[in-house]
Amino acid sequence: MSKLEKRRSTPVSRILIYVLLSIVSLFSLFPFYWMFVMATSPSSAYNSIPPTVTPGSFLVDNFNKVLDKIDFFQAMWNSFVVCSIVTMVVLFISSLAGFAFAKFKFRGKNIFFTAILLTMIIPPQLGLIPQYFLISKAGLLDTLPGVMILFFLNPLGIFLMRQYISESVPDELIEAAKLDGCSNFKIYRSIVLPIILPAFATLGIIVFSAAWGEFLWQFTVLRDPEKYTIQVALAQLSNTQNVDFGMILSGVFWATVPLLIIFLLFNRLFISSITEGSVK
């Protein structure tokens, strides 16, 4: 194949890739669009034939029904508090642990790291009863700290931070800092943190999204409606004989909006942090 033919085939291949990505993106976004359509439609539109594919005019009415059933904004605030604290604590603990596993030598390091990774294969449902027993003994039932504390240690976060620090933080930089008299924590604060900001953004998105979507443990621990997170509060909307799908999906839609905003903010931070980390 000549160079001219290669040049002609390159734009065609790019166009095909863009078309394929556009089709996949549309399929990925369609559930969110359908959720919005149902949130703006009456409950009867849920089972209509042909299905409803255009937004209606019931968005405000459906959301008013949600506000009549549950304390929506209090539940949103509780979820935001829980997810924010869990995310910050996970980022701090995971980055410290990842730094230790990546750059320090100590007895049993590989054993401890392997044990942490093995916890990822244990289904969370298996630990529900003993975790409930421990939280009950600690007096944290029906409290937001009782919801959060089990998620502070994140094996995936430790693994991601360990891998990222191993590849991105040069050993020579750490040795030079030690010769200048820097303590280990000062090395972590002044050298490691600026470099791992992209990993922070990525892990922050993962942890916040997972904490926002958590339901089983929150439903098990919380009993006071004033302490409900948004997932537990939304579950109360279906505890009726006549299920109003427009109302439920309206609540789900508005509960998804803050998560999308957080995702976009972290995504922008991720892009800008790649440049900052590479320069530093």
Automatic annotation (TrEMBL):
This protein's name: Sugar ABC transporter permease
Matches recorded under InterPro entries: MetI-like, MetI-like_sf
GO cellular component: plasma membrane
Entry membrane topology: Multi-pass membrane protein
Organism encoding this protein: Cytobacillus solani
Stored PROSITE patterns: ABC_TM1
Intracellular or extracellular location(s): Cell membrane
UniProt keyword terms in alphabetical order: Cell membrane, Membrane, Transmembrane, Transmembrane helix, Transport
Upper classification of the organism: Bacteria, Bacillati, Bacillota, Bacilli, Bacillales
